[in-house]
Structure formats: C-alpha cells, structure tokens
Automatic annotation (TrEMBL):
Involved in the regulation of the intracellular balance of NAD and NADP, and is a key enzyme in the biosynthesis of NADP. Catalyzes specifically the phosphorylation on 2'-hydroxyl of the adenosine moiety of NAD to yield NADP. GO terms for biological process: NAD+ metabolic process; NADP+ biosynthetic process. The keyword Cytoplasm applies. Its cofactor is a divalent metal cation. Its main location: cytoplasm. It comes from candidate division WOR-3 bacterium. This is NAD kinase. It catalyses: NAD(+) + ATP = ADP + NADP(+) + H(+). GO terms for molecular function: ATP binding; metal ion binding; NAD binding; NAD+ kinase activity. Signal peptide: none annotated. Pfam families: NAD_kinase, NAD_kinase_C. Keywords: ATP-binding, Cytoplasm, Kinase, NAD, NADP, Nucleotide-binding, Transferase. Belongs to the NAD kinase family.
C-alpha cells in the first residue's frame, strides 16, 4: 500500500500544521498523496475517523486512525507512533479489522453508521414516544429521551454511557439501548445482526435521528424507521500488537486492578 489520502478536521487547533507535518513524514517514508488511495489516514479523534468512514467506507478502502489528542478509542495510534506505524505498513506488518455497520432507512433515505444511530428528542426536556418491532413482531411501546441502535464497535460509545453492554468488535450483533426510559421494564437488548428492527415515532414529542454524529434528519410523528446491518464492512488498520482489551483498559480503565 503506497497511495494514501489524508482526512483531518480543519476546525481543530494546529490542523494545518499537523497536516503539513503528516504529509512531510509520508513523502519521506516513500508514500504518495493520492486521490485514488490504497488507504486513508484520519488525523484527529474518533469524530474525524467517523467522518472518514462516512466519506470512504463504501469504497472498500482501509482506514488508519491517528489520534491528535483526546480519548481516541477508535483512533488508537498516537501521533508520536505515526512514523512507526508507517514503517509497519510498508513491511505489511499490520492487521485489518472488519467492523460491521448499521443502516437506518427512512422512506427513500438511508443513513449509515459505524458506531450508532440515535433517535432522540428534538426539544430538550421533552420526551418521545416509541414503539418497536423486531422481524415484524411487536415487542414494546415506551416513552424516553431517545433510543440508540449500536454496532459492536459502538458498544463502547454512547450506548455504554446509557447503560448498554460492551461487545467484542468482531461480534455480529446489534444493540438496542433506550435513553432514560420512563419505565423499568424496557432495558438494553442484544439482537442478532440479521434481524430487522422497526421503530415508529408516536404522538409524544418531536424527534431527530443522528448517524455517528455526522448526518441528521428531523422525524415526523408516525414515521417508521427501519434498522438493519449494512451491506458492507469498514476496514480499520490496526497495529499488529494491538488488542481490544488492551485499548479497553487503556482508554476506559476497564477491568479494575491488574492481577497480582
């Protein structure tokens, strides 16, 4: 892999400086900046990587996330490790992780997400009424601030913060997590990836749907949204020695104390 394209959030401080430095390092290492890349480098945080996923995932091009500061759960390569990971890529010493995506279909519009798709109230302080079906079977009706449909990758993001479970990123599953439901009987549920979820917006409240924090759409009362596994995967470039649990411990301090 020699041809590369850089994706960066230009609104971030020092964005131009970091972009020029990254370009200089890439050229010095023998890579070519190209509009027909073999792989994408997302410079920034998780938001930058999710933006790159929205732009390039359907082209089947691997993406490397390089963290320029902040938590960076998905962008787990630090900028100080940039030269090292480029050397590893040249030597073909890296892993490709295939990450499942989820879709939301609203009439003729389709939203895609690597982490999650959220339906939430469009009026702070007000709730939304939802009804849910799985594979055509009615399962529940409830009032809440919102609902999250998350992938295994997204299980450590918004869904986790609202009480959802952590899944291994190579799992084939979809998580449905309510946000502050006004009942104790509706809790997060893990579903097989081949199931079809249908959410209908009830009479209470106004709602908005947001995919990975990138794309959004206002929803009307009575509108049906269909969720299902996307037809393609995101390919993430990872260091050969990286593991999910190593990242989980480092970034989220998961697991408590080390074994004595």
């Amino acid at each position: 892999m020699q041809n590369v394209r850089l994706a960066i959030n230009k609104k971030k401080p020092d964005a131009d400086k970091n972009l020029k430095l990254a370009q200089k390092i890439l050229i010095k290492k023998g890579f070519k900046i190209s509009n027909k890349p073999d792989f994408i480098i997302a410079l920034g945080g998780d938001g930058t990587l999710l933006s790159a996923v929205a732009d390039y995932a359907h082209y089947d091009v691997p993406i490397l996330g390089v963290n320029l500061g902040g938590l960076g759960f998905l962008t787990d390569v630090k900028f100080s490790q940039f030269r090292k990971i480029l050397d590893e890529i040249k030597r073909n010493r890296f892993r490709i992780e295939n990450r499942m995506m989820v879709c939301a279909e609203i009439k003729k519009d389709v939203l895609y997400a690597l982490n999650d798709i959220t339906i939430c109230t469009n009026t702070p302080g007000r709730v939304v009424e939802f009804s849910a079906k799985i594979d055509g079977e009615y399962i529940c009706r409830f009032v809440a601030d919102g609902i999250i449909i998350a992938t295994p990758t997204g299980s450590t993001a918004y869904s986790l913060a609202t009480g959802g479970p952590i899944l291994m990123p190579n799992s084939e599953a979809i998580i449905m997590t309510p946000i502050a439901p006004h009942t104790l009987s509706v809790r997060p549920i893990v579903l097989p990836s081949d199931c079809k979820i249908e959410i209908q917006i009830g009479r209470k409240g106004k709602a908005i749907i947001v995919a990975d924090g990138q794309r959004s759409k206002i929803l009307k009362t009575g509108e049906d949204i269909k969720f299902y596994k996307a037809p393609y995967y995101v390919k993430l470039i990872k260091p050969i020695d990286s593991t999910f649990f190593k990242t989980l411990k480092e970034k989220l301090k998961w697991g408590g104390r080390e074994n004595a």
